[in-house]
Amino acid sequence: MIAELGHFALILAAFVALFQAVVPFIGAARGWTGWMAAAVPAATAQFLLTAGSFAALTHAFVTSDFSLKLVVENSHSLKPMLYKVSGVWGNHEGSMLLWVLILTLFGALCAWFGSDLPPGLKARVLAVQAMIAAAFFAFILFTSNPFLRLARPPMDGQDLNPLLQDPGLAFHPPFLYLGYVGLSLTFSFAVAALIEGRVDAAWGRWVRPWTLVSWMFLTVGIALGSWWAYYELGWGGFWFWDPVENASFMPWLITAALLHCAIVVEKRESLKTWTILLAILAFGFSLIGTFIVRSGVITSVHAFANDPERGVFILAILAVFMGGALTLFAARAGAMTSKGVFGLVSRESALVANNLLLAVACFVVFIGTIWPLVAELLFGRKLTVGAPFFNAAFTPFMIALAVILPVGAVLPWKRGRAGRAAAQLATAAALAEAAGLLAYAVQSGRSALAPAGIALGTWLVLGALRDLWLRTGRGEARLRRLAHLPRADWGKAVAHAGLGVTFIGIAAMTAWQVEDIRVARIGDRFEVAGYGISLDAVEDTRGPNYYTTMATMTVWDGDRPLATLHPEKRVYPVAQMPTTEAAIDNGIWRDFYLVIGDPQQGGGYAVRTYVKPFANWIWAGAIIMALGGLLSLTDRRFRVAAGAPRQRPVRPVAAE
Amino acid sequence: MTGMRVLIAAALIALAGPVLAVQPDEMLADPALEARARELSKELRCLVCRNESIDESNADLARDLRILVRERLLAGDGDAEVIAFVTDRYGEYVLLRPQKTGVNLILWGAGPVLLILGAGIGLAHQRRNRLSRETPPEELSTAEAARLRAILQDRDP
C-alpha cells in the first residue's frame, strides 16, 4: 500500500513539474504576476511529493518488503540497518529517485530563498528547472520504476553488492548527486538569463552561491569515493581514471572554472558569454556522466547494471537540453556585452588562464573517456584508454595551473604589474623550492615526482597564506584586520591551500610508497621500510551477513608496538562475492596498510604490506577545499543578497 | 559450532577466488626485474576485466599475463619488446596507453592543440577589447590636422 502511495506521489509530482514548466514561463513572457508566482507553491509541492515517494521506497527497504522487485534484488533481511537505508540508492532505480529528489530540492530552495530575485527571472529559472524535472520523472516512470511489485515474493532478498556495504560508499552517492544536480540550477539560471537577454553583476551574485554549493558537494563526494577505493579495493590506489570516476571529475573541473569566471562577471562584468557557456556545459557534463553510468555504453567497474533503452532515453534528454540551450546561446550570446576592460597582466587574465587550463583539462578527460567508443565506431580500432594516458595527458595542465595560481591570486583587477606580483611572492617561491630540495635530499635518487609535487604544493599553501596577509594592507593592526577580512577572502585562501595539500599528498604517496608482498606464517616477523610487521594470528569467524578470515597483525618500530591491525578477507554468501578488507593505521605522515590473502600451499598466508607516506593529505586537502567553499558561501554579500529586504532591490549596477 | 565451521569451509572453497592481485609465487627473485615487471603490468589491460590493469586484477587471465610478462623478461626482452610481444598476441586493446599512431594522434594532440587555440582566441579577444575601448584615438597626422583646421575655419585648403 505504501509503495503504491509512493508511486502515485511520483506521478503527481511529474504533473506538478509539467504545470511548473509551462505556467510561470507564460506568465514571465506576458508579465502576468499571478502566473509567475505560481512557480513557488508548485516547486514546494513537487519537492514534497518526491520526498514522499522517496520515503515510501525507503520504508520498503527498511522493512524488507520483498514484494517489491527492487528490494528483492538489492537487499537482504540480515543486512545492517545502515545498508538497508543506503541500499535505497545503491541501485539504478532508487538512485534516479534520489536524483530527482535533489533536483526538486534545489528547485524548492531557489523558490524559498530567492525572494530577492526579480520575479521574471525567478519564474523562468523555476520553469526551466521544472522542465528538467519533468524529463527525469518521465525517465523514471517509463523506464525505471522503483515501485514494481512481484506476483510471488521470495522469502529473502539477493543482498546488496558487498562492495557497496560500506560507510564511505553509503554516503558517496548522495553527496555526488547534490553536486551533479545542483548544477541543474546553475543551468536554469543560465537559460533564464539567455531568454531575458541580460547578464549582469547581480546575476553573477545569484548564480555563484549555487555553483559553490554544487562544487563543494562534488568535492566531498569525489573525495569520499576516492577514499573508499583506497581502503576497499585492497591495494590502496586512490584514483583509477575509470569512466565513472571521470564522469564525476569532468563536472568538477568545469564547475571549478565556472566558479572563477562567475567572480569576473560579478566583480567586473566581463566574460559573460563564456560564463553562460560554462554554466550550460557544467550541467551538460553532469548529464553525460549520468549517461555514461547508466547506459553501459562505456563499461566501467562500477556502472549500474544497465540497458540500452535507458541509455537512449538519457541521450534524448541530453540532446534536448544541451541542443536547446546551446541554440539559445548561439542566438542570444551576442546580446551580452562586456563592460570591464582589462590588461594582459591582471586578475581577469589570470582567471581566463585558469578557465582555459581547467576547461582543456576537462576536455582531455572527456576525449579520453569516450575515445574507445569513437575509435571503434568511426575508425574500427578496438582500443583502451587507461590510467597511463590520463596521467600523461592530464597532469601537465594541473601543474601549469598550480604554477600560475598564487600569482593570479595576488594580481590586482584591471591592470597589474608582473614584477610587483613576483616581488610579493618571492619568499613563498623560495620556501617552496627549499621544500622541494629537501624532499629531493631525503629521498636520495628516486624520481623527481615527489620533490616537484611537494614544491608545487608548498607553493600553493604559502601563496595562499601570503595572499591572505597581503589583503590586510599595511602598517599597524594587520593581525586584527586579518580576522575581519571578508569570509570570501578566507575561503579563497583556504580552498587554494587545500589544493596544495592534495598536491603534496598525491605526489608523496605516489612516489614514496613502499610495497611488500610475501608469504608469512603465523608468528613470522618481517621488515618493511624500517618497520617490523608480525603476523600474530588468523581466525575464521562470521559477521552479520558474511564469513570472514581475520588476521591479527602488529606493526613495530623496533621493540615498540605501533599498532595492532585486523585485515580481513570476507565472503558474502548471498551475493557470492569475496571482498578484501584492508586494515589501515592512519597517520598524518604515513599510513600502514595491511592486506591478508589466501592461505598458501605449504602453510602461511599471502600478505601485502604498504607504507604510504602522506596518504591522508589527499583527502584532507579535498575536505579543506570544500571548507574553503563553505567559508566563501557564508560571505556577507551572499547573506545580504539572500535575505535582503524587498524595498532595496539589487539593481544591475556595475561592481566597481 | 562444527556445523558452522564446515559451512565456512564450504563457503570459502566454493567462492573464494584469488583475492590479491600479484601473488608471492609469481614474483621474480631479481628485484630489478620484478620492478620492471610491475611497471609493465601497469601498462597492460586485463582483458576480461573492466578497466583494470593486470597489476591490479584478480582474474586468472591477468595472472597468466603477468606470468607471461615475467617469462619474457627472464628471456632477456627489453620493455618495448615485451609490450610488442603482448600486443602481437592480444591486439592494441591490451594497451592502457594508446599508441600514438593514426587517428590516436587526435586523442593525444587534443589537449595541447586546444590549449594553444584557446590561448590564441583569448589573446586576440583581449587585444581587440583593449584596442577598441582603451587606446585613445591616434594623433592626427599633420595633413589631417591642417584639414581639420581648414574645416573648422570653414575654408578650403
From TrEMBL, chain A:
Subcellular location per the Swiss-Prot or TrEMBL entry: Cell inner membrane
Name of one Pfam family that matches: CcmF_C
Organism of origin: Mangrovicoccus algicola
Protein name as annotated: Heme lyase CcmF/NrfE family subunit
Family: Belongs to the CcmF/CycK/Ccl1/NrfE/CcsA family.
GO terms (BP aspect): cytochrome complex assembly
Domain Cytochrome c assembly protein: 89-295
Location, primary (coarse class): membrane
Residue stretches making up the Cytochrome c-type biogenesis protein CcmF C-terminal domain: 315-636
Automatic annotation (TrEMBL), chain B:
One GO CC annotation: plasma membrane
Coiled-coil portions: none
Keyword list, A-Z: Cytochrome c-type biogenesis, Heme, Iron, Membrane, Metal-binding, Signal, Transmembrane, Transmembrane helix
Domain CcmH/CycL/Ccl2/NrfF N-terminal: 10-152
Signal peptide: 1-21
An example Gene Ontology biological process: cytochrome complex assembly
Record flagged with keyword Signal: yes
A molecular-function term among this protein's GO annotations: metal ion binding
Transmembrane segments: 105-124
Classification via Gene3D superfamilies: Cytochrome C biogenesis protein (1.10.8.640)
Keyword Transmembrane attributed: yes
Summary of the function given for this chain in its UniProt record: Possible subunit of a heme lyase.
Family statement drawn from the similarity comment of this UniProt entry: Belongs to the CcmH/CycL/Ccl2/NrfF family.
UniProt protein name: Cytochrome c-type biogenesis protein
